[in-house]
Structures are given as structure tokens and as C-alpha cells.
Amino acid sequence: MIEMHIYGLALDEESQVPVLILKDKADKQVLPIWIGAMEAVAISMVLNDVRLPRPMTHDLLLQVIEALGGEVRNVDVVRLHDNTYFAEIEVLQGESLKRIDCRPSDAIALGLRAQVPIRVSEEVLAHIVEVRENRYQAVLKTEDAQQWNEILEKYTIDDTKYKM
């Protein structure tokens, strides 16, 4: 497993789908993961230290894990199958280590809240390198964090007052 960090969020200009960009510590390997809009907002909230008066789903999940005596140890992107990434949350409960299947975006949103390492399997990264060498053309056009910052700057607690 290779430890990664969040390089940023961008928007795929063609599909208008958010893309989470992970990089390794040496900034040599990049893994773009297309994610849903709600998951992008959940990740952005942590990255931009936005706090709400009530827990969001990923906050709630972390609270439940901790209330049941568990500790999130790390989140791992473990495989790629049919162009879909699979992830696992590693939870230590007592002396038992449990791995819970989930979407990478949810794992990362939870991992950020738990402040644990985000890791990607070498096999997933090797596949990405292999795809790039076969003249893979990414549609991602990085727009820095400015676009997400604009969304969060417009965001107010009143926006969710009656919706959550």
C-alpha cells in the first residue's frame, strides 16, 4: 500500500463530474477518482474546515464507530474492477481488526474526519501507469481549488437548516 494525500478537487470539464485527485508523498504518482457531487462537498468541508451544528453522514459514521469501541486506522483503495474503484475502511475494535467494504469517496471522507492515512494498493497504481502508457488521454483539466472554494464561500448554515 502506498500512502497518498489529497492534492485537490477538480471538475471534469466535459462531464461536469467532480474529480478527487490523490498524489503520493513524493508527488510522482497521481490517482484521479471521479466522485459524486455530495461526496465532493463532504470532502471539501473537511479540507476547508467547515463545521456544521449537526453531524453529516460521515461525521455520524465516525461517531458510531467510536461509540462502539472502534478506531478507524486507515482507509485503503484496494482494487479496480470494470473501471470502478473499491475501498476498505480498516477499523480496530478491541483486538479485532475489521475491513469494511465501501466506495473510495466515502472512505476518504471518513478518513479525513478520523485523520488517518489514505492508502492505495500498488496494483491500482500500476494499472493507472499501464493505462497512461497505452496513450490514455485523461479528460481532467485541473481548476485548482478555486472552484470549490467559491462553492464553499457561498455555503451558509441556513442552506441546510431545513434540509438535514
- Please report the total strand number as a whole number: 7
Question: What string, H for helix and E for strand, traces the elements in order?
Answer: EEEHHEEEHEHH
Instruction: Give the overall pLDDT as a whole number.
Output: 82
Number of helices in the DSSP assignment: 5
Overall spatial form: globular
* Biggest β-sheet description: 7 strands, mixed
Keywords for this structure?
single chain; 164 residues; alpha+beta; 7-stranded mixed beta sheet; disordered C terminus
Structure description:
It is a single chain. The protein has helices spanning 37-47, 57-67, 104-114, 122-133, 146-154; strands at residues 2-12, 17-24, 30-34, 70-81, 84-93, 96-102, 118-120. With 164 residues, the chain is α+β, with helices and mostly antiparallel strands. Strands 3-2-1-7-4-5-6 form a 7-stranded mixed β-sheet. A hairpin with a 4-residue loop joins strand 1 (2-12) and strand 2. Helix 2 packs across helix 3 (104-114). The longest helix has 12 residues, at 122-133. The chain starts with a strand and ends in a 10-residue tail after the last helix. Residues 134-145 and 155-164 have low confidence and may be disordered.
